[in-house]
Each structure stands twice: as C-alpha cells, then as structure tokens.
Amino acid sequence: MSKNRVLIVDDTPSNLDSLLNILQDEYEIAVANNGKKAIEICRSEHKPDMILLDIVMPEMDGYEVCERIKSDKQTQDIPIIFITVLSDDESETKGLSLGAVDYIYKPFNPILVKARVKNNIKLKLYRDELELLLKENEEIMMAQSKHAEMGNMISVIAHQWKQPLSAISAVANKIIFDIELDKYDIEQIKEHAHIVNDQVQELSKIIKDFANFFKPNKELQSITLQELVHMTQSIISSTLKSNGVELSCEVDDTPISTYVRELMQVLVNILVNAQDALLERNIENPRIVLSLKHDDTSLMISICDNAGGIDDNLLDKVFEKYFTTKTGKGGTGIGLYIVKKIIEDHLNGNITVMNQDDGACFKIQMPLSQA
Predict the structure, then answer these.
(1) Average pLDDT over residues 104-121
(2) Cα gap 22→113, rounded to integer Å
(3) Are 234 and 268 in contact (CB under 8 A)?
(4) CB 309 within 8 A of CB 315
(5) In what order do the strands lie in the sheet with 359-367?
(6) For the chain, first and last CA: distance in Å?
(7) Is 206 a residue whose pLDDT tops 70?
(8) Which residue of 51, 162, 172, 191 sits 20 to 30 Å from the alpha carbon of 147, by its own alpha carbon?
C-alpha cells in the first residue's frame, strides 16, 4: 500500500529536518521552503494528502498560502495544519477561519505531531470515501431518472402513435371492405397506399424525434429559440392535446448556443409535471404557458400553469432529492432534483419556483451562449 503524502512548508531548515525525522517512516514527504513552491507542489499531479504549514515566512506568510490553497478548486480539499510559535487565541482563530484544520506548536512534540497528522489524514480519507460514495449515488440517481423519464416518454409515444395507427387501420379496413364488395379500383388503391405511406412516415418521424431526444450529446449546438420550442413540442404536444391541456408559447427567433438535448430534457420534465398537476386536480380549461425571453447575455425561461400552485410549505423542498407529491402514484421525486442539477451544473444557470396568479411558475435563467 502506498504511503500518504505530507507536504512540509517552512523556511527554517532545522524545522524541516525535525518534522522530516518525525514523519518520514510513516509518510511520503515533500518539502518547500517558501509559499510559492508549496502552491506549485499542491497543484502538481502528485498533490499532498496533508500540509504542515509554517505561519511566519518571508514574502508570502502561511496565512496567504492557506488562503490561496483554499480558494483554488484544485487544491481546496487538502487539509492544512499550521505549525507556529504563535499561541495566542487571535492567531489560532485567524488560521481556522481561513480553513486550517489544526495547529502544531513549536518546539515539536513528536508524539503530538504524529497523532495530529494521523487523525487529520484519516478524516480526509473518510471524507474522500464519502464524496466518492455520494458521486456514485448521484450517478445511480441520474440513471434512475433517465429510466423514469424513458417510461414517461414511452407513454407519450403511445399517445402520438394513436392517430397515425388509427388512420392506417381505417384505410386498411376500407380496402378490405371494398375488396369484399368488389368495389375497389386502381386509382383508389394508389390513393390509399399514399395515405398509408404518409402515416408510416409520421410514425417514423415520431420514433426519430424520441431517439434523438435520448441520444447522448455533450456538444454545444446552435439553435434558434423557435427551433428549440418546436423540437420540444414534437415530444410533448400530442400528449398535452390528448389530455385537453392547452400549451401556448411566447418565443422569438433568437439564436442561442447550448446543450440542446439537456435543455429539452429540462423543459419536457417540467411540462409533464405541470400536466400531471392539472390532470390530478381536474382543472377546467387547463393551460400551460411556455415563455422564452432574453437580453444581451441571458436567456429567461418561464413555465407557468393554472393548476392552483404548490403548497407554500413545500415550495422550498421541490428540488430536494426524493421529494415528491405523488407518493403511491409512481413519483420518484428525482425528476426536479435532476432538472436543477442539469441547469446549475451543465447549463450554468439557476432555477426557481413560485406561486403566481392561479398556478405554479418555474423560472430558469441561463447564459444565451454556453461558449
């Protein structure tokens, strides 16, 4: 098993030698005699698992080194123990406020040094393991969300296939009926064949739309807002229409650069949620308004319904993991959580929800261009 790596930062050679002698049997040691070199080591491929950092150094003192390390995402998780002759409360408070986890005072007590380094490295390893488990759990949740969404989309496909299949069935029955009565002619057969072919093309288009929707695509695409809305409507409009839900869109032809499939996933998810709320509450004249507006740099999207809104006590919980108002009705509670993750982590935006007028309104703000 490889040893944990400890970086010792001190401008005094005797201090470096003392700490090296105390720790070298148990840890892989790196040394730096100034703050600049310490930061370089922390940003290298072999980052340390722990830093022992002297406070009083020329050019860049330990406080500044600590502040720089903690402000850099690449290095901010490395635990820092200050080594110092300063023992007043003010100095200790300042160090801890900058992100240090502990203090070791000079002259060094070998037993104390070993114990504090060992305990804080253990804590770091536990934290790293927890973060890994959380990341794995996040990936599982994303997969669950995708499966749940695919189930919803299969239902939507079924709705959208009804009309073309009904048309094909009607034409087939008409052909059979005419044959049995010996009333058909070549021109009529051609006409019926064209109708069947048109409906088959429509079925093919529906499948292509959904295949594209689920196709992984992490590349930026240029698209106009009208095209984005049209593509979203191709996924959801038939289901909304079959359930009597009116969808009105306010949009112009402004071009944007974004991750189109992920943004569509967000829009479809929120629209389906709005539809479910409208149907569950038996709203008369159910409607959803999708609005896309912009300024020079930002895109503002709002999706509002007239389903009566969300309980005020639940508004701040709707984006939480596993929260759902559909207990026992197939709700997983991960849809809106994943929506928030996509908006914040992938599209560099933010999403909020509020009650206004006679329903709930989701508002998204994100860059007009992700480039």
Answers:
(1) 88
(2) 8
(3) no
(4) no
(5) 246-250, 287-294, 298-305, 359-367, 350-356
(6) 43
(7) no
(8) 162
Which residue is associated with the tokens 């070791």? 104
Give bridge partners of residue 291 from the DSSP assignment: 250, 302
Crossing angle of helices 13-23 and 110-180, in 10° steps, is 70
Higher pLDDT, 221 or 217: 221
> Per 3-state DSSP, what percentage of the chain is helix, strand, and coil (rounded to 5)?
50, 20, 30
DSSP H or E stretch at residue 62: helix 62-70
The pair of structure tokens assigned to 283 is 């709203």
Q: What CA–CA distance (Å, rounded) separates 92 from 102?
A: 9
pLDDT (mean) for 206-213: 61
Place of tokens 């104390």: 112
Q: What is the pLDDT of residue 350?
A: 94
The identity of residue 308, as a single letter, is G
CB 270 within 8 A of CB 362: yes
| Alpha carbons 70 and 93: distance in angstroms, whole number | 16
Higher pLDDT, 154 or 73: 73
The DSSP letter of residue 66 is H
